[in-house]
């Protein structure tokens, strides 16, 4: 009897396949998607900005800095200098900065008072504000266009109610004319920086409230009460406790709205005077509109993006510096 | 320094919720009073009305001769320490402490000097430049106390100041706060739900329940002579028995107990009697004011021994010193003696709901 089993004959092993880690695969796919959607368009825009426009045709790839030189010193450089596009950049920043700051300034007291209300009241306001976010820029601009139009809007109301006549008699009309808010006969809001900023502010005000709401609703009310017991009147409490405690959300909300407003198009088209048009309109004209110069449009977009990035970086540094000093 | 007086002060919130019924209390100048009661009894609302953070729905609050009922919080000059301490995270420790002085327009050097002096007082010297986030719980509490004291308040209010601290630190801070209050001689009102904390610190305890003051008095009196069944149950432990008054005694069914002084009840009145466990004795020989029972459980708790006895249809507790000799074990038949002067009787009237 054999007490030792014969060694089993093993089948020849199949060639080992490299193991695929599903997690890594998904992560890789995700990064590829982010790259495709988020990075590639930027790289393309930057690359196109160095391209060259062929007169009477499209454009060709290249490495020409003429588009940037045209942006900063004009196409006639070095014979003549023009700051036309720098001026457009200035108006982009000007409108966006003022409207963002105004929206946050107006949203802050509203949101603060809203968070002091009962939960139910807060919920109603939040639903209303969220619903108002569904209004597109076109819809908002259309509404303000009607409100501010010379024939049927506020100028008509001013005229019919005698306010215009009173303004003329009281001598305020000339001041309005100096501010560009009146023509020789009537008050006018279109086109004016006032109407532009008003509409831009209105457009982003609900966003400002939504952005400030979480931080303000989390604010410890005991801190406010503590300040009151230490002799601070309500406004002093806001100035010395609420505002300093809220400075990061306030700065954050302002910056976010500023960046958002840099891209405003319809409002500027309708309400801003042509001499005060922004880079956004110029970029559109270059890429899809009248001038059809994609490389120059791309260069303008890159400068706008770079300027916004620089300003955001500077703001972050300033906030950090203020934080260290506080 | 003037006495603080509440005269019929009450608070009814929107929706008709009565947080505080009509409370009339005197807070003697320079004394520490503890408002003691379970959660929701109205003690914090009462404190907030005193601070001016909540408007009373009725009654008057006076400080000495001045009626301060309508005076806003910022004009009262009362220092307050909040449960969460409510320190300002955007200010340093010294800036927090000197906040009231900055509001009052006191100059920077003076503010700094005052903050340093207060930091010394609360035993946090040279911590003025620290951020609030860098402090421990105990340190934050000291800073909150120093901040409330900076404006030299006429009344010092503390809303559950120890609740955010761990047990060991809480014990230490209770003693420290009491020493500080005695040193400054400031009229102080502390809200707490911890009866041990109240007993440790207060000159006077006000026990509250369901928006009412159940009893106000020195801690020893509150403990020894609880005015209501609620106070007897909330302050320390007590053995409760139900009975009927007959001939000035309380008939429990299995025994009749005398009360000294006699209970002012008519014959047939349903009462609940209470006797502290340490006043309850176990005796071998039959006598007056005794209830027969059976030992169910004996346990030594450090310096004391607790003996649980089933008697008169309920479980009674007897506490004796561990050093006392005792051969009592579970299952022994014993007699529970309650001295007449240690028994308190309360009417058994069910309180209306709401």
Quick summary:
Chain A is mainly α and 326 residues long. Helices cover 70% and strands 1% of the residues of chain A.
Shape of chain A: globular
Q: Main β-sheet of chain A: number of strands, strand sense, barrel status?
A: 2 strands, antiparallel
The helicity of chain B comes to 10-25%
How do the SSEs of chain B run, as a string of H and E? EEEHEEHEHHHHEHEHEEHHEEEEEEEEEE
Estimate the strand proportion of chain B: 25-35%
Q: What is the CA-CA span between the terminal residues of chain A?
A: 94 Å
* First and last CA, distance of chain B: 39 Å
* Largest interface pair: A-B, 19 and 31 residues
**Main beta sheet of chain B, described?**
6 strands, mixed
User: What is the succession of H and E elements of chain A?
Assistant: HEEHHHHHHHHHHHHHH
Helix and strand topology:
The complex is a heterodimer of chains A (326) and B (354).
Chain A: H1 22-49, E1 52-53, E2 59-60, H2 66-73, H3 84-115, H4 119-132, H5 137-148, H6 154-161, H7 163-170, H8 172-178, H9 193-218, H10 221-229, H11 234-245, H12 247-262, H13 266-271, H14 279-287, H15 294-325
Antiparallel strand pairs in A: 1-2
Chain B: E1 4-13, E2 17-27, E3 32-36, H1 43-51, E4 58-63, E5 66-67, H2 73-76, E6 78-81, H3 93-97, H4 99-103, H5 108-121, H6 137-149, E7 155-159, H7 167-184, E8 187-192, H8 195-201, E9 204-209, E10 212-217, H9 219-224, H10 229-234, E11 239-246, E12 249-251, E13 256-258, E14 270-275, E15 281-283, E16 290-301, E17 304-311, E18 314-321, E19 333-337, E20 343-347
Parallel strand pairs in B: 3-8, 3-9, 6-7, 7-8
Antiparallel strand pairs in B: 1-2, 1-4, 4-5, 9-10, 11-12, 11-14, 12-13, 14-20, 15-19, 16-17, 16-19, 17-18
């Amino acid at each position: 009897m054999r007490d030792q089993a014969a060694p089993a004959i093993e089948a020849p092993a199949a060639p080992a396949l490299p193991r695929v880690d599903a997690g890594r695969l998904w992560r890789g796919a995700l990064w590829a998607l982010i790259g495709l959607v988020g990075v590639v368009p930027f790289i393309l825009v930057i690359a196109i900005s160095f391209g060259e426009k062929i007169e009477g045709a499209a454009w060709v790839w290249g490495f020409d800095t003429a588009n940037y030189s045209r942006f900063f010193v004009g196409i006639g450089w070095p014979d003549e200098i023009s700051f036309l596009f720098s001026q457009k950049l200035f108006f982009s920043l000007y409108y966006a900065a003022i409207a963002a700051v105004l929206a946050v300034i107006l949203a802050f007291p509203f949101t603060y008072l809203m968070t002091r209300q009962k939960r139910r009241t807060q919920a109603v306001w939040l639903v209303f504000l969220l619903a108002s976010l569904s209004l597109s820029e076109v819809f908002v601009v259309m509404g303000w266009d009607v409100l501010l139009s010379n024939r049927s809007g506020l100028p008509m109301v001013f005229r019919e109610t005698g306010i215009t006549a009173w303004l003329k008699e009281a001598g305020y009309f000339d001041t309005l004319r100096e501010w560009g808010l009146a023509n020789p006969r009537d008050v006018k809001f279109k086109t004016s920086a006032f109407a532009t900023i008003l509409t831009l502010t209105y457009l982003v005000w609900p966003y400002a409230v939504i952005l400030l709401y979480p931080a303000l609703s989390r604010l410890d009310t005991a801190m406010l009460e503590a300040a009151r017991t230490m002799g601070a009147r309500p406004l002093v409490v806001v100035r010395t406790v609420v505002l300093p405690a809220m400075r990061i959300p306030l700065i954050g909300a302002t910056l976010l709205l500023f960046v958002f407003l840099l891209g405003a198009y319809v409002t500027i088209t309708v309400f801003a005077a042509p001499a005060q048009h922004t880079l956004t309109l110029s970029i559109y004209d270059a890429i899809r509109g009248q001038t059809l110069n994609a490389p120059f449009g791309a260069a303008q977009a890159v400068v706008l993006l770079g300027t916004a990035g620089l300003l955001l970086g500077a703001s972050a540094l300033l906030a950090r510096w203020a934080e260290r000093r506080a | 320094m003037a006495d603080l007086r509440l005269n019929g002060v009450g608070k009814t919130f929107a929706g008709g919720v009565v947080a505080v019924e009509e409370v009339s209390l005197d807070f003697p100048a320079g004394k520490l009073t503890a408002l003691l009661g379970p959660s929701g009894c109205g003690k914090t609302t009462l404190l907030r009305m005193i601070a001016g953070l909540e408007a009373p729905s009725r009654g008057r609050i006076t400080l000495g001769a001045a009626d301060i009922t309508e005076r806003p919080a910022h004009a009262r000059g009362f220092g307050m320490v909040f449960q969460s301490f409510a320190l300002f995270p955007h200010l340093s420790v010294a800036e927090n402490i000197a906040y009231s002085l900055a509001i009052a327009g006191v100059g920077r050097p003076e503010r700094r000097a005052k903050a340093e002096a207060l930091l010394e007082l609360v035993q946090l010297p040279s911590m003025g430049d620290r951020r609030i986030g860098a402090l421990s719980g105990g340190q934050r509490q000291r800073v909150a106390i120093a901040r409330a004291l900076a404006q030299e308040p006429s009344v010092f209010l503390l809303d559950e100041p120890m609740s955010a601290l761990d047990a060991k630190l809480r014990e230490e801070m209770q003693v420290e706060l009491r020493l500080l209050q005695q040193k400054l001689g400031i009229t102080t009102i502390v809200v707490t739900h911890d009866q041990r904390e109240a007993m440790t610190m207060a000159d006077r305890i006000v026990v509250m329940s369901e928006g009412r003051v159940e009893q106000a008095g020195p801690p020893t009196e509150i403990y020894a002579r609880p005015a209501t069944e609620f106070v007897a149950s909330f302050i320390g432990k007590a053995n409760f028995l139900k009975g009927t008054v007959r001939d000035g005694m309380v008939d429990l069914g299995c025994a009749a107990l005398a009360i000294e002084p006699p209970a002012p009840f008519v014959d047939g009145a349903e009462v609940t009697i209470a006797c502290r466990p340490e006043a309850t004795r176990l005796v071998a020989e039959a006598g007056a004011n005794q209830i027969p029972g059976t030992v169910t459980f004996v346990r030594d708790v450090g310096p004391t021994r607790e003996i649980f006895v089933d008697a008169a249809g309920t479980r009674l507790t007897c506490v004796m010193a561990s050093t006392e000799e005792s051969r009592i074990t579970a299952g022994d038949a014993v007699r529970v003696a309650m001295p007449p002067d240690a028994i308190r009787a309360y009417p058994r009237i069910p309180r209306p709901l709401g």
